[in-house]
Every structure is written in C-alpha cells, then in structure tokens.
Design a protein that fits this description.
By secondary structure, the chain is α+β, with helices and mostly antiparallel strands. It has 16 helices and 26 strands. The strands form five sheets. Strands 8, 18, 19, 20, 21, 22, 23, 24, 25 and 26 form a ten-stranded mixed β-sheet that branches. A six-stranded antiparallel β-sheet has the order 1-2-5-4-3-6, with no helix packed on it. A four-stranded antiparallel β-sheet has the order 12-11-9-14, with no helix packed on it. The structure holds adenosine-5'-diphosphate (ADP).
Length: 588
C-alpha cells in the first residue's frame, strides 16, 4: 500500500502537528499547509511530527498538506550578506517588501543572497595547489570596508585545485573545481550551513585583546575581550537597546551582526530606520557596510525569534572564519527565551523554573559558547574572534529569574543596568558596584602595553573610591555630613567627580559618545591624582574643606572630558592639569 501523504492533525499557535511524517528528519525544514508556510520539525515520534512554524498560522487547519524538503534549517553564506536586513529565517526584508508590501504575506520565499548579482572574484589559490577546509580560494571586495574571503568548504581535506578562475560571477556559479581522492567538487562562492551547528575551528585561544567600545565605564571598569561573551541585563527603560546600538556603532569589531527581537512594536522599526543612515566614526563609511541585521518586528511570530538567534550567530561565525573580529549583539535574548517557553508549553513538556523549559540553560550556554577567539580552519595562521553581547530583560529587573541566571552563568562580563540610575538620568546606567568583568586578568598585558602601565592601579583606586562612597553615604544618612573627616569628605567629593565627569556619558552626544581608551585612562588618572594630592592635607586639624573645593584646578578636573589626546599621542593637556593640581594643593 502506498504511504499516506503527510497532513496536519492539529494547529496550536506556532506549533503544528502532522502525521504520516515517517520520511522526515529532526530539524528538517517543511512547508506547512496550502500556503506552504515555513516550519521546522522539532519533535518526531512514530511518524507524528511537531513542527515549529516561522510564520503566522491563523487560518491553517487539520487536513492540509505538509511537504518535506530534505533540508535542515540552513543559512546561505557568501558575498552580499553585509548591508542586508533579514528576518529570522534569512529572508531579506527588502525583497519580502517588494514581493508583498508592508504586511508580510505568508509562504513567501526569498533567497538569502542575491542570485543574479555579479561579484569580482579574485583567485588566490592556483591550479595544482593542494588545499583543505578553511584555506582561502579567492577574495571578493564585498563592500568598501570588507574583503570577503571565499574559503574551501568544511569537510574538504587535501584536495587538488583542478581549475580556478578570476572574473565576474554570481554566487551560484562555480569559481573552482577541486579534486579530493578522485572525487570532483565544484565550488561556488556561496555555501549553506545548518544554523544549529557551530562552525568548526582549529582551536580556541584565550581572549586577550580589548574590544574597544569607547564607553568609559565599559573599557576602563568592566572591559570585554574580543572573543568574549557579555550580558546587559536591565529593566525596561534602563538603556539596553541604547547600549547595544552604541556598541554596534562604535566598537572596533570589523563586522557587526545585530539581532533585534523587538521589545516594543516600534522599537525595531526605529533601529531599521536609523541604522542605514549612520556613518562609521572610524572610517566615515556607512555603518551598514560592515553590518548584517536580523530583525524580528513584533508582527512576526515568536518562533522566528528562535531561528533569528541561530541565523545571526552562524553568519557571525562565517565572517570570523575569514579572520575578522566580529561582534554580535542580541537584543533582547529574553524574547528568545519566551519563545522557547511558549513552544515548550505547547509541546506539553515538563516545565522547569517559571515555566521555562528545562533545557533553557543548555540552549543559552550553547549560544554563548559559540563566542570565542579562535585559530581559524585552514593552513595559514589566520585568527578570528566572535564577541557576543546579549541583552536580557528580566521582568521588574529581578535578576533571580531563570533567563538572567542562565545567562550570567555563561557570560563573563556583566553590565548591570540599574533603574535607579536611569531614573536619575545617569547614563549609561551601568551599576558600578554590581557589574563585573572576569576578563580583567586576561586583558592585563594588553592594557599595560596599549593603554598604560599603571592602568590597574588607577582603575583599582577609582573603584575603591566608589565603593567607599557607597558606605559613607550610609553614614551620612544616619549622622549627617558634618560628622565626616576631611578624608571622608574628599572621598565623597572625588567619587562624585568619577561619576559625573567620567562615568556619565551621553550616547547621543557627538563629542561624548565615544572616547578612545587612552583618553579614558588620562581622564581617570587626572581625577585620581586630584584625590592623591588633596588627601595629603587630610591629617591637618581644623582644615577648611571649602578651600579645596575652591581651587581653580577643581574646575579643570570637572571639564577633563573636554581635553584630548592629540593625534600624535601627546597627553600634555592632561599632564598640565595634573601639574596644576600639585601646585595648587601644595600651596594650601
Ligand atoms: P531598554 O532597552 O532597556 O528598555 P532603552 O535603551 O530604550 O531602554 O533606553 C531608554 C531611554 O534611556 C532612551 O530612550 C534614552 O533616552 C535613555 N538612555 C539610555 N541609555 C542612554 C545613554 N547611554 N545616553 C543617553 N541616554 C540614554
């Protein structure tokens, strides 16, 4: 008897159950219903498949057909990814819009890469060369900022290049023919990769280089290493999106992948409208030339968020494999976790904490573990990094909830956004007492060599002044400021300066949004110098603190932001202020 065709037996929101699915594989892409909605098999038992559908399922019903495709959910990798805005399953939004207008129709397919566009492929390998996975076959100038490197596909070992040609090709045309053990393999510029599998590397390295973000509280106090993983938890309105976007604009990664899972309906639209008009402050080129965006607007179904996270990180790994510093921002991963919770609930799985599935922790870990500093596949000594920064939005800002806890377990830099600071309009609202970076020991050598030999001392002292401030504030609340000693008053005075003149940084100010690390250090050193000089006066009896406050150098310290390190690297502007501090305090 002929096997019965697969049909839908049940529809429950984004989850569809179909029978007669004996031919299907786990994680296979299927087309669901008469309209052919795109879905993925996420559970398979005796021919009964549970399918996560990445499009709106309203109106789909039992009895409608399901088609298997024989493929797992994959991304198409090749030139043309940069400058594109995708949905969660790598359909370019612009193409979808052209095909269907602003309101996405269902079942629309669109390839990830433009199949017609011709690229200038320049062969690097030569006929007769022996190549293996990860070796560079040729290059394409993808945008003015990024040279795309076409690599020998993963899995190919010791193959002879039978032919290779430079010239104009689209992504589907062959640029080379390889021969491994008598088996010929045509290679085009595009490749497919299943999004749930991490792309392989030769080996992982310790992340030891600073990701320069230009954010003072980040780079000086809680730095992130290139290849590291960081998280930004914070309640609604505390600045997660602004921080992620500022990082995407200014950090010194060469390629940015930005995944937006809209919190509010119009939020992603703002990003989509704003980003294409921004220019890279380092190069003056449009920022999109180094950026791939993945957008889940709020009218897209929740399941697509799940796919978008994997689509994004696979694209990021692909550029890492070419030898680039890549940074991925995911805003907000809580929306992804909620999607997991919803699907898991519909699958009637045993719920874990707060209804999230028991595998929330392992899925979160798998995602962040795809970050890293690596020796890329291939025979050269190409290195790449993939830094992952995830925002988390715990309801009410309570970090004990499962998504925050699971994220904190696997990320090493924690920028804790604080609603109190945001309410006081202290931005970035990164709480300096709660945040941390476990990359500090790894970065020690880099900071000493590239920022300053005494970076640690200056940072350490500034941190301890802030900590002392918080203790003294308690005392002041109890007994009033008059009970404080001169030294204690000075601690409060200096800590305030660290907060207001150094940590406060307006992301929307053209001059203030980005500060080079050398300048950050000079600013902090100047403030700390003021304390170290003035504290010499503190053991005098009957000293009038107002005299310190009235010193002209105090005004200069308050404006330390306005000083600059010159292009030649001269820091004399800061040194001059430090000399004035010594002179004026000495004269008291
Ligand atoms: P969240 O994503 O946490 O809900 P947003 O990133 O949307 O919060 O930030 C809320 C508001 O806070 C922004 O619209 C902006 O006015 C302000 N804000 C946050 N961070 C900064 C910053 N670094 N500089 C200036 N303003 C900021």
């Amino acid at each position: 008897m002929a096997e019965k065709a697969p049909v839908i037996v049940k529809v429950s929101g984004p989850l569809v159950v179909a029978e007669n699915m004996h031919q299907a594989q786990m994680y296979e892409v299927v087309r669901v219903g008469e309209e052919g909605l795109i879905g993925e098999v996420i559970r398979l038992e005796d021919g009964l498949a549970s399918i996560q559908v990445y499009e709106e399922t309203a109106g789909i019903g039992p009895g409608e057909p399901v088609q298997t495709t024989g493929q797992t959910l994959s991304v198409e990798l090749g030139p043309g990814l940069l400058e594109t805005i995708y949905d969660g399953i790598q359909r370019p939004l612009r193409i979808l819009e052209e095909k269907t207008g602003h309101f996405l129709a269902r079942g629309v397919t669109a390839t990830g890469l433009d199949q017609e566009r011709k690229w200038d492929f320049v062969a690097v390998a030569g006929t007769g060369d022996t190549v293996s996975e990860g070796d560079i076959l040729g290059t394409v100038q993808e945008t003015s900022l990024i040279e795309h490197r076409v690599l020998v596909p993963v899995g190919v070992k010791k193959a002879k290049v039978e032919s290779i040609k430079s010239g104009k090709f689209n992504v589907t045309e062959n640029v080379a023919v390889l021969n491994a053990d008598g088996k010929k393999k045509d290679v085009a510029m595009r490749q497919f990769w299943p999004i749930r599998n991490a792309r392989p590397v030769q080996s992982k390295r310790l992340p030891e280089e600073l990701l320069k973000t230009g954010g003072r509280s980040i780079d000086m106090f809680f730095p992130l290493a290139k290849g590291g993983a960081g998280c930004i938890p914070g309640p609604f309105g505390a600045g997660k999106t602004v921080t992620q976007q500022t990082l995407a604009k200014y950090c010194d990664a060469e390629v940015i992948v930005y995944i937006g899972c809209g919190e509010r309906g119009n939020e992603m639209t703002e990003v989509l409208n704003e980003f294409p008009h921004l220019t890279d402050p380092n190069t003056g080129e449009p920022l999109m030339r180094r950026t791939v965006m993945i957008a889940n607007t709020s009218n897209m179904p929740v399941a697509a968020r799940e796919a978008s996270v994997y689509t994004g990180i696979t694209i990021a790994e692909y550029y890492r494999d070419m030898g680039y510093h890549v940074a991925l921002m995911a805003d907000s991963t809580s929306r992804w976790a909620e999607a997991m919770r919803e699907i898991s609930g519909r699958l009637e799985e045993m719920p874990g904490e707060e209804g999230y599935p028991a595998y929330l922790g392992s899925k979160t870990a798998e995602f962040y573990e795809r970050a890293g500093s690596v020796n890329c596949l291939g025979s050269g000594d190409r290195k790449g990094t993939l830094t992952v920064i995830g925002a988390v939005s715990p309801p009410g800002g309570d970090l004990s909830e499962p998504v925050s806890q699971n994220t904190l377990r696997v990320t090493k830099t924690f920028w804790g956004l604080d609603s109190k600071l945001a309410y006081q309009r202290h931005f970035p609202a990164i709480n300096w007492l709660k945040s941390y970076s476990l990359y500090l020991p790894n970065l020690e050598k880099f900071m000493k060599e590239n920022v300053a030999q005494d970076y640690w001392d200056v940072r350490g002292q500034a941190m301890s002044l802030l900590q002392e401030e918080s203790k003294l504030e308690e005392i002041v609340k109890l007994v009033g400021p008059d009970a404080l000693s001169i030294r204690e008053k000075l601690v409060l005075f200096t800590a305030k300066s660290i907060r207001e003149d150094f940590l406060y940084q307006d992301s929307f100010s053209e001059t203030d949004a980005y500060t080079v690390p050398q300048k950050q250090y000079q600013m902090l050193k100047t403030i700390v110098t003021f304390f170290n000089e003035a504290v010499k006066l503190s053991d005098r009896d009957e000293f009038d603190f107002a005299k310190i406050e009235a010193l002209p150098c105090v005004q200069k310290v308050a404006k330390v932001k306005e000083l600059n390190v010159t292009e030649e690297g001269s820091v004399s502007a800061f040194e001059d202020v430090r000399k004035e501090i010594q002179k004026e305090v000495g004269a008291l």
